[in-house]
Specification:
5 helices; 64% helix; single chain
Length: 118
């Protein structure tokens, strides 16, 4: 028996339950916090370790002291704040941005950041 046969039983009740559950699912919010904090924690940890252990190869893993790291790190943090504001507007569900920040505002933010960073 395949999955379509299991869903389409004689009364169609299972299909109704699955369709109802799919509509009730919400997009998870604030999931980016795990990624942002893990990246920032790892970078900070290697930066601190490079100060404490002299002559250890861990100094080569210290990416924070390299000048070419600052722009991607700034873009990462700026994108994280954009996601945070988008999620906060969506969670509050009041005011002008009930469904989060519109695409045009996010694109303006990206263009402004690129212009400033460039």
């Amino acid at each position: 028996m395949n999955s379509k046969e299991a869903i389409n039983d004689e009364d169609g009740k299972i299909a109704e339950i699955i369709n109802k559950n799919d509509k009730d699912l919400k997009t998870p919010r604030m999931g980016g916090l795990v990624i942002v904090f893990s990246v920032l924690f790892t970078v900070a940890l290697f930066w601190l370790v490079s100060f404490g252990i002299i002559g250890n190869p861990s100094g080569k893993l210290d990416i924070l002291s390299r000048s070419e790291t600052w722009l991607p790190m700034a873009a990462f943090v700026a994108g994280a704040f954009m996601g945070l504001f988008d999620d906060l507007f969506t969670i509050r569900n009041t005011g002008k941005f009930k469904k989060g920040l519109p695409l045009k505002y996010r694109l303006v933010f990206v263009a402004a950041f690129a212009t400033f960073a460039g």
